[in-house]
Amino acid sequence: MSGALAALLALLFFAPLAFVYGRRVAAGIGRQARARGRSPLAVGLPKLAVPLVLLFAMLWRLAAHGTSLEPRVVATGWRSLDALLAVVDMVGGAAAILFFLTIPFAMGRVFGVAAAAFGAFGEAAGLPESTGRGNRSWRDMRDSFREESSVMAQRFTVAIDGPAAAGKGTLAKLIAAHYGLPHLDTGLLYRAVGRKAADLGLDLDDPDAAGAVARSLTPSALDDGSLRGREAGELASRVAVHPSVRSALETFQRDFAGQPAGAVLDGRDIGTVIAPDAEVKIFVTASPEVRARRRTDELAAKGRAPDYERILAEVRERDLRDAGRATAPLKPAADAHLLDTSEMAIDAAFLAARELIDGFLARRG
Ligand code: DC
To answer: CA–CA separation, 353 vs 256, rounded Å?
Structure first.
């Protein structure tokens, strides 16, 4: 196949994909830009640079050599322009191979979008609806296109805040699974910092030491099973008062909240600080007595012998610390929906949360 034709076909192939996914990516970039107070260009360019360079290299390669995938790198000496072109050629060759490999996977989507575009055209041009026995009518095609586009545009962020043991973690997991959104338990980040600071024998009340630990945190630190325990929760609550710790963990959380796929985050300051633009905000509460009772029952079910009064005192102390700190204290955002789970089992709380989210989706249309 001639080079120009191959490049044109590749462009035609990418156009519908770019249309469908571009909306989703643009929405994510816009959200991240707003969250960080930067321009969409400044946020988007670094993210799009690699795909754009790859696309350019691939088109260049296809235009120059058609669909032949033979290696074309010629040793030309590193200082010359030819050497640069040889590198572009090599990258373009690799991108072209990848491109050909993805064709079978992407073809269904491309045909779907093309068929739907034909459907929209059919409606606009007043074509008769039936396209023959066994064929889909243009109305079906147009509807599937709308559905496809709205599923892409339907990505949204859910911010769930609340005090310890109110059930927000379980709720967040259920919501994430139901709507197919990625989930981040932000408490785990603070727990990992508290745990590591304690293991290193550092003073948890020293903002500089705790801040340094937070800045050095790596994702593998979150895998530690003991982080879910009560002790790590106490350590977390102590290091979480330091602005140095909070700011070190902020970018990661904001990026997670702004990702194009949408997200569910649970914590203390998600709706107020991390994702103030979240489409749905839920503040989950329950009385300290109910929360202490749940914790006690959880521990008893694991075969321990928990002391309810002590757990109640700890819950109250943690509430005071989390809500009383100067930076990003635990409090509902002005536009958060309050969900008091004192008298509610988790399935009822989940149902209530789904009603809120489905209501939002229906309003957005
Ligand atoms: O949600 P959790 O119990 O895992 O949180 C442990 C502690 O971490 C909590 O007491 C306060 C702190 N935290 C916070 O300050 N901000 C968050 N977004 C999440 C947790």
So the answer is: 21
Gap between the Cα atoms of 239 and 197, Å rounded: 9
| CATH architecture group of domain 154-182+261-305+330-365 | 3-Layer(aba) Sandwich (3.40)
Over residues 50-76, the pLDDT tens digits come to 777 777 777 777 777 766 656 555 545
**Start-to-end C-alpha separation, the chain:** 45
Q: Would you say the CB of residue 322 lies under 6 angstroms from ligand 1?
A: yes
Is residue 314's pLDDT more than 80? yes
pTM of structure: 0.65
**pLDDT tens-digit profile of 207-223?**
999 999 999 999 888 98
For a mutational test of ligand 1's pocket, the pick from 204, 322, 330, 331, i.e. the residue with the most ligand atoms closer than 8 A to its C-beta, is 322
- b/e burial code for range 312-331 (CB count within 10 A of at least 16 → b): bebbeebbebbeebeebebe
> Does residue 321 or residue 155 have the better pLDDT?
321
Domain boundaries defined on the chain: 3-122, 154-182+261-305+330-365, 186-258
Euclidean distance between CA atoms 119 and 140, whole angstroms: 8
